[in-house]
Structures are given as structure tokens and as C-alpha cells.
Design goal:
Structural class of chain A: alpha+beta
Distance between the termini of chain A: 21 Å
CATH class of the largest domain in chain A: Mainly Beta
CATH superfamily of the largest domain in chain A: Jelly Rolls
Largest interface: A-B, 47 and 47 residues
Order of helices and strands of chain A: HHEEEEEEEHHHEHHEEH
Number of domains of chain A: 2
Oligomer: homodimer
Number of strands of chain A: 10
CATH architecture of the largest domain in chain A: Sandwich
Strand content of chain A: 15-25%
Largest sheet of chain A: 4 strands, antiparallel
Number of helices of chain A: 8
Strand order of the largest sheet of chain A: 2-6-4-5
Radius of gyration of chain A: 18 Å
Helix content of chain A: 40-55%
Shape of chain A: globular
DNA sequence: CGTGAACTTGAGATTTCTCAAGCGGGGTGG
DNA sequence: CCACCCCGCTTGAGAAATCTCAAGTTCACG
């Protein structure tokens, strides 16, 4: 169950057997999640980091009048609140599915970060990649059309899912509604719906009942102006989990 | 000259005298910058981190057809490419002014991060705060009007400048053009211009010749729906540099 | 006094939004 | 087993925000 965390850290520089064991040992307990549950709440000053071991979640902030911005989607292997180790949380993370969260005591993580520089590098990298994804979303929201933004998001998710071995026959389970999609891209639900129809109409993808199917990868990449460089997966040693 | 780096790291948790000296000693050499110079270039896999000691800069990416998205503005004390320590750079950082950049050899920084956990925490914090700022910009671009977005950016910059002692009588030097402003907020230059006029018309601020003057702080905060929490400055021990 | 960059203005075009209504299917209570 | 209900999806149509193109102005600088 914990292996996806190891995989995620390892993605960007292989760890030794001992180091992998240390990473596995970080998770001292697990909790199951239910749909819609808040896994991390604004204002939290937690004593543990939460790692998503199974299921999916999204990071978001809601403004006083109800406008919502989703800032990221999370898949197994992702650390949900490394920030909580150093700063209070300034947003929420909510479960999209039932799943499982691992708890990593801050004290234990601090010891490991000090004692195992290569593991610390793994955490640094994932944290910096998350920031790179934020920047890429900024480029999308600032400078791309709705059409390209949607295509780009699906490209990104497919690549991330694939790295965790969660893509089969160009399909992956991605159980968000069109409203989630809108709130992540800065669009209205109506416009998202119509734009999604255009993407379908071009034969690029299908997306229904929480299942994303990429029908034309080159076409989708082109539509989204997608270049996976910012995910920094090419800086990977090996990708044992990769499926396809 | 190096003190703003120390101040920046210290903002989020005081360092001992020895630790401060270690931080100061990180910068082994400095280079002066000219306006428009690229300080960090996409594709770089640098051997040093660059710290902005004096002057200002912006982080951005330009798409093949010329659309540009600015992702952050940088002021003295900011580390420009901590990412380069762990990943290749995926965007550029360009100087807005003449100034000075300090070089920190990666090897030296790695040693210090391993040997001085409290300094490492300082770097973690600044890195996570940068990510928090990215998220806040996403909220703006996704869910705020042009009017609120502009107001919000100016609020953010004033608060950040103030923390570095760079605000005097509610004025600060912020030498960006309306085009920079547009590219950071995802707007056209024309619309930015007109919206800026509206903000001026409300008596909230003045912004010309690269000087920002806040005329009505409560009004500007309200216009920008600004809450400084995401900058995490309230988690500060003390703020010796703060001016006003 | 000429020049260029930045700023400003006008006006029509486009994207995207909002409001409002209708559809469809899965789950649940009767 | 069926009817109802709710949530998510879809559609229509007018409104608003924002963009683009194009021209003109201002001002610092040489």
C-alpha cells in the first residue's frame, strides 16, 4: 500500500533498499477516507503529514461568496500537506473517492529528512514539481483558451496517472464532475460543458462517469499545447510501475 | 548586502547568530545585473543557486507564439532558483532593474541544508510560501475579476516589500510596465489600462513611473479581496526590517 | 527637437458568463 | 418493482467581461 509513496519519491532518483524501507516506515498508521471528506482543512497546524495511499483528492480554496478554485488533483503517492510541517495550512484538501490516507508524524519525518539526504531530496523534488504544476496551471488560466486548458489538464493527468501505473489502454479513472473541472480551470460549468463537447467532437477523448479515455494522444497534446517537461519525469531513472 | 537573504529566511523563524553567519557565508560571489537580463534560463541545470540581493526580477514563461505568463515578481532576499538544486529549470527569470545577484554553490548549500536543520527549515518555508503565492495567483486568475486581481497583486507586493523594509510612506518602487502587469494577471494590456484607471478613480492607489503608492489601504484590500494569511508572515517571530 | 516606449482611447469582435429550463440515470422509499 | 428525486449533464439565449485592432498622446531621453 505504501509503495506508491516510495515510487513517487523514487521517480526522481532511485533510492537504495535501506532508504526505501525507511520511506515505508514513515507511515505509522492509516485511515480510510469517504467521498467528500476534508482530509486537510484551512487553519490546520497538523502534527502529521498525510500521504494519499489510495484514492483521489483535490486541493482547493473557496471564497466567502462560494466561488471555488481547485488548485490541484491528487493521486496515490502524493503527499497532501508537507506544507503543514513548516506552515499552517491555507486551504483545504478534500477526498474525491473512498481511499486511504497514511499518517507520517512530523517528528519522525523531520528526523528522516535530517538523516537521509537522498530521501530529503525526494521530498524536495516532489514539492518543487508540485510548484511547477501550479505554475503551469497559471500559464493555462492566464494565457490559454478554455479548449486548450481542458485538453492540457487531461494530458497532465494521464501522464501523472501513467507514472503511477494507473493507465490501462489509454483509460484512467478520474472521478471528477464537470463542476470540478470548471473550478480547476477557472471556467463556468456551462462553458466547460460546451468546450468538452468540442473536444469530444474532434475525437480527441471521451470523459464520462469519471472515466477519461484518450482517443487521440497526439491530437490532444496539440490541442492542449502540452509539453510534459514541467512534470520532470524525464529526469527519472526508471519507471517500474509504468503501465500503458 | 546579504542581510536580506537572512532576513527573508528569518521571517519565518528566528535563526541564531551562528546560523545567520552560516547563511551569510553561503553567497560566495556576486554579479551585478542589467535591466532585461535573463538571470535564470529555461533548460538550465545550474551548479549554483542565485539569490537576489538587490533589485527586482520576474519569473515567466513565453509560449511559442509570444503569449507570456509572468508567474512571480522577486524582490531582494528571494532565492531565484532553488528548483535548480533538484530539477532542471522550466522557465526564465529576468531582471526588472539593475541589481545584484549572489551565487550559492549547490554543494555548499547541500552541506548547510544537511548540517543546519533550522536553516533548512527556512529554505523549506520560503519555498512553500512561494508555492502558496502561486496558488493565490491561481485563485485570482481563475475566480477574480480584473479589478480585484490588480488590487490583489498590489496588496501582495506592498506586504512583501514592507517585510523587507522597502515601503516608505505607503510608497514603493515597483518598476513594472502595464504590460508586465497584464502578463502576470492574464489580461490584455488594454483592459489592464482601463481597469487601472478605475482603481485610480476610486482613489485606492496611484501607479506610475514604476512607483506604487497606496492611497487607501482598507479600500485596496477590500477591492482585492486581500487577506495576507497566505504569505504566512503572521507566523513571524519578529520583523526588525519592517518599515512603513 | 526627434524618437521610441509606454500609456491611453475608441470601437467592434469574441469569449465566456449568467440565468433558466429541461433531460437522464441511478438510488431509494414505498 | 415502480415512482420519485436528485445530481450531474445539456441546451438556449441574452448579458457581461474581456480582447483585438488601430490610432493617438505623452514624456523621458538623446
Amino acid at each position: 500500500m505504501v509503495t506508491r509513496l516510495t515510487a513517487n519519491l523514487q521517480l526522481y532518483g532511485a533510492l537504495s533498499g535501506e532508504e526505501q524501507q525507511v520511506v515505508e516506515s514513515l507511515v505509522t498508521s492509516t485511515r480510510s477516507t469517504v467521498v467528500g471528506e476534508d482530509l486537510v482543512v484551512e487553519g490546520d497546524a497538523p502534527t502529521h503529514c498525510r500521504v494519499l495511499l489510495d484514492g483521489q483528492a483535490f486541493r482547493h480554496r473557496t471564497l466567502p461568496d462560494g466561488r471555488r478554485q481547485i488548485m490541484s488533483f491528487h493521486i496515490p503517492g502524493d503527499v497532501l500537506d508537507l506544507q503543514g510541517m513548516f506552515l499552517a495550512m491555507d486551504h483545504n484538501v478534500t477526498a474525491l473517492t473512498t481511499g486511504e490516507v497514511g499518517l507520517v508524524p512530523h517528528a519522525r519525518l523531520a528526523d528522516v529528512l535530517e538523516g537521509y539526504p537522498r530521501i530529503a531530496r525526494g521530498f524536495w523534488r516532489t514539492s518543487l514539481i508540485e510548484a511547477a504544476i501550479f505554475r503551469e496551471w497559471m500559464v493555462g488560466m492566464g494565457r490559454r483558451t478554455a479548449y486548450a486548458r481542458i485538453a492540457h489538464l487531461f494530458c497532465e493527468m494521464i501522464v501523472r496517472f501513467r507514472a503511477m501505473g494507473m493507465v490501462h489502454q489509454n483509460r484512467c479513472h478520474f472521478p471528477i464532475t464537470q463542476q470540478h473541472l470548471s473550478d480547476s480551470l477557472g471556467l463556468s460549468a456551462v462553458h466547460t460543458n460546451r468546450t468538452l463537447q468540442a473536444l469530444r467532437g474532434e475525437g480527441l477523448l471521451s470523459f464520462q462517469h469519471g472515466e477519461l479515455v484518450v482517443l487521440d494522444w497526439p491530437g490532444l497534446k496539440a490541442a492542449g499545447e502540452f509539453d510534459a517537461g514541467y512534470l520532470h519525469q524525464s529526469e527519472i531513472a526508471s519507471l517500474s510501475l509504468a503501465g500503458g
